[in-house]
């Protein structure tokens, strides 16, 4: 996976946040926002680490860890690295995701399973690893990145939509399990966001989606990051099991 960039030595100031899939798009925007807010932030990456780990002056550089969330050993190693450099994960943002778009009648079992393994089972795996220590500390914030597709559906994305819809049930069930231990679990549902994952849909498809958005435009990853940062804040302790749309009104009424 290439050279593994990291800060030097153990850093002890600020709460510890881990953002899976944090090397680009929404995940990277979330990591940058938390970094600017004074968190000690680790990200996982699978294809390529971000070019720069530095943030604004006075902030701690990102800790970038190669990790495939579909591999249990990778997840365990990633958490161990974060704990060695920063301490226990106090804020977990599950942003790692993938698509394998095709119509159902053309979909293979492999395409179905790859999406579910990354988008759903990877979340189960990372949340399970983080939750034990959060419970013992009686503090934690877990934010799951779902999608407006979970409610609206999208032709050619039955696997993706199923995985993102499942996060709502998973997250709300986990919220009920952990609420008594002062650990919150919330779900953010982005709409049409200007990312590499959206760009692969093609200009015509993106334009047709934007035309459905009441706000009349695609969102920026930083706008999703703002919502995540609020849910991750200490002041948001009484918000759990919530589904927060960041979609320009696209999923209104769902």
- DSSP E strands, number: 7
Q: Could you tell me how far the N terminus lies from the C terminus, measured between alpha carbons in angstroms?
A: 40 Å
Q: What Rg is obtained from the alpha carbons, in whole angstroms?
A: 17 Å
Averaged pLDDT: 92
The CATH homologous superfamily is called NAD(P)-binding Rossmann-like Domain
- Give the overall form: globular
In which range does the helix fraction lie? Answer: 40-55%
Please tell me the total number of domains.
1
What oligomeric assembly is this protein in? single chain
Helix-and-strand structural type: alpha/beta
The H/E string reads EHEEHEHEHHEHHHE
Side-by-side strand order of the widest sheet: 3-2-1-4-5-6-7
Largest sheet, strands/sense/barrel: 7 strands, parallel
CATH fold category name: Rossmann fold
Number of helices, where a helix is a run of at least 4 consecutive DSSP H or I residues: 8
The poorly predicted ranges are: 1-11
CATH architectural grouping: 3-Layer(aba) Sandwich
